[in-house]
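Re: that chain you flagged

S.,

Sorry for the slow reply, it's been a week of failed gels. I finally had a moment to sit down with the sequence you sent. For the record, here it is as I used it:
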Amino acid sequence: MKSFRPARSARVFIFEVFLVTVLALFAACDSRAQESSSKPSESSSRPNTGPADTLTAPLTGPSLALREALAAACSQSQRDFSKFLTARNAETFSTLTPGARIALMKRFVLLDEPGKPSLVTGASGRPLVRCETPGGAAEAQIGGAETADNLAFLPVEIRDATDTVGQNVMHVRMGLIRENGEWKLLSVGLVLLDLPSLAAEWDAAEIESTERAAIESLKSIADAVEAYRRKYTRLPDSLANLGPAKRGGAAGPEAAGLVDADLAAGARSGYNFRYVIASASTLGAPAKFALAGTPQTYGRTGRRSFFRDVNGGLHGADRQGAVGSEADPKVE
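Prediction finished late last night. Pasting the structure tokens below so you have them in one place:
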């Protein structure tokens, strides 16, 4: 199976550690804890070797919800996957960065790329979700549900589709809760899927990296402005003049090709950027410019606002999301 490569952001990295820890815990203990009444039989531990049979009996309740949630995770459909989160988790899920949302879904099928789910039955008649991607395939077989009132727990066997001897089967116990008459994902192993609490940790860890990235972006923009000045003997009118030329077109003063499309649009990695021609002289003195970077979502993508003054000094301070100034402390 193609292993998952950790995403670059600290938020996604922490989430990776969280789920890897959970899955490792249950790989060790859940195989002993599951009772035979709910665990898929030994004969079902082997994936189908012939053409998969489509489900002949309609699923209902928590088994259906878990199957559909795994299928949504396979295709990385954020809209469909969110339907199987509790209202509290769904609200937080919608505010996560796209990378964090995709990282969450990837860990349910252990594949990097979005895939095509097939909903079939295993040899024992248990529901099975097969996820086919260009880089590999995985199978998740769902065992019988243990249901009590509004809670349900289902054992799941996850394997590489090419593992014909069950050498690396991962056993995970999934918890679901009935909310407003519909079954929603509740836990992975013994750990509750509490996205609001996890998001606070991800935000704190990611802020440092996004602020560092914002500083580097301001330096890149400043270098590009000076390169534009040297080439065209004037300052650009806007950041858009620094961006890439249209497809098939040549670089020029309207699109000099000095920064990528994101910076040319004034946004990257959770920060918005502004460019201002601060002073110009009719007496021959070079025009000067100032740059500002502010967090797109204060407290989540960053806390400090950054300001590059007309003399090239860089300043930073917590402005509650407002634009900084040269009065702010200098950033080394």
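What I noticed first: The chain has seven helices and 13 strands.

Talk soon,
D.
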